[in-house]
Amino acid sequence: MITDKPHSNARTARQMLRTHRYGALATLSKKFDGHPFGSITPYLVDHDGSLLILISGLAEHTKNILHDARVSLITHDQNNPHIQTQGRVTVVGHARLDTQREQCGTRYLRYFPEAHTYFDMPDFNFFRITPTALRYIGGFGDIHWIKGEQVTLPPYPLMTEENSVLDEINEEHRAALQACAPECAGETLSLLGVDWDGFDLRGEHATLRINTDTPLSNAQLALQYLTQKKGLA
Questions:
Q1: 65 and 125 share a domain?
Q2: Which structural domain range is residue 214 located in?
Q3: Rounded average pLDDT over 33-52
C-alpha cells in the first residue's frame, strides 16, 4: 500500500528528478523471462512530470518495454560520493511510445543537442514514462512513498508559453541570469528551459538547475522571477 504524503514531498522529488539528466532504467527482460534488466539512459522530465527517453528500436530495453510496459528509473547526484546518505529518487511507472515525435524532439533536443544524430535516425523514438509511484529518499531517515498522481501535473499555461519566455529572456534579460547563478560569474549564460518547478541555465561548461519555492504556472510569473531575481530556493 502506498501512503499519501504531503505535496511538498512530491514537489521536492519532482525537482530532484528535473535536476538530474541521467538515470538507471530497469525493464523486464523479454529474452530472460522477466528478469530485471538495467541500463543507463538520459531522460528529460517534461512539463507535466512525466519522463521522456529517446531510444533505439534495436535496444534491449525497447524490446522489453514493447513486451511489458512496466519500468523503473533511479537517479541521484553523480557528483556526490556519499551514495548512502545523499538524496535519490526512484520512479515506478509505465513506458509507452509517444507518437508526437517532433513535438517531443523540440524540447528534448534543446536539453540534449548531442542527440540530434540519434533523432535523425528513424529507428529512434520517444517513450514517455508515466509515474505510478515514486520512492523518494531525501537523506538518512527522510524516506517516502509518493503516489504518481501527486507527482504529475495537470495542464498549465507555461506548457505552451515556454518558448516565448526563452526568447524574451535570452534576447533582453541575460544580465538577470548572471544574478541567478553567481557561481557562473564570467560565463555566457542562456535560459535553457522553464517549468512549474524552476528553470535551467546553460553555461559554457555545464547546465545548472535553479528550483523555485513558488510554482511558475505561466509566462508572467516566470518572467517576474527571472527579471526580478527573487523567489529562488
A1: yes
A2: 158-228
A3: 97
